[in-house]
Amino acid sequence: MTVTTGRRERKKAATRQKIADTALRLFLERGYDAVGIRDVAAEADVAVTTLFAHFPSKEALVFEQEEQFELRLTQAVSDRAPNDPLIAALRRAIHVLVGYCTAKGTAPIWSMIDETPALREYEESMRQRHARSLATAIAADLGLPSPTTACRTIATFVADAYALARETDDPAAAVDEIFRMIEAAWQAARPSTDPTGTPSPE
Predict the structure, then answer these.
(1) Which residues form the signal peptide (predicted)?
(2) pLDDT tens readout for residues 63-81
(3) Do 123 and 164 meet the contact criterion of CB atoms below 8 Å apart?
(4) The pTM is what?
(5) Which of 159, 172, 199, 202 has the largest count of CB atoms under 10 Å?
(6) Would you state the pLDDT for residue 5?
(7) Which pLDDT score is estimated for 139?
């Protein structure tokens, strides 16, 4: 049963990746607005229903790593070592995401996103979703029942960091600069996130 499940999951993952790769190729070749969902499904040799089983919308085809990005951010909080400072762990996670987003060959993709209103809106809503999930993870890490204003604010700063950094000439340096400001903000806000009124340990 384990072998069967593993094979099924691998097949699903391969189909998902094939759809995403096909969509991106068509979008870059013909233009995002000129390609429809049926065009992608036909080129990938899958049913439209299969495509929607993997991607909820046309915009999601461009951001096929969205779930992995969100998971990496929340796991940076929940899976870090006991003595690993929160902001440092998040900085490392953002460095990885920025590296992915600025890798060789990604410039045409970001140009398409920047030039397409629907994709810009989706990216913004995606960052908001990531920030909400991250705020929840930070609150849980602090033992809080729900995210405080400080948790939500820091989470928003972190979720926006990769978008700000990727637009600079030196994304890695930009991440470090941004996180120096995030660290200062967190140090200022951290006492208010602890119900006892004392600074929360990292």
Answers:
(1) none
(2) 988 888 999 999 999 999 9
(3) no
(4) 0.84
(5) 159
(6) 60
(7) 95
Same domain membership, residue 51 and residue 106: no
Per the structure, the complete domain to which residue 43 belongs is given by 2-58
CA–CA gap between residue 176 and residue 194 (Å, rounded): 26
pLDDT at 42 over 50: yes
Enumerate residues 6+ apart whose C-beta is below 8 A from 101: 110, 162, 166
Ranges of H-type helices in the chain: 2-30, 37-44, 48-54, 58-62, 66-78, 86-101, 107-115, 117-141, 149-166, 171-193
Q: Report the C-alpha gap between 174 and 55 in whole angstroms.
A: 32
11 burial via Cβ count (<10 Å: 0-12, 13-18, 19+): exposed
Whole-number mean pLDDT of the chain? Answer: 89
Question: How many domains in the chain?
Answer: 2
Tell me the pLDDT band of 104, cut-offs 50, 70 and 90: confident
DSSP string, 18-77: HHHHHHHHHHHHH-GGG--HHHHHHHHT--HHHHHHH-SSHHHHHTTTHHHHHHHHHHHH
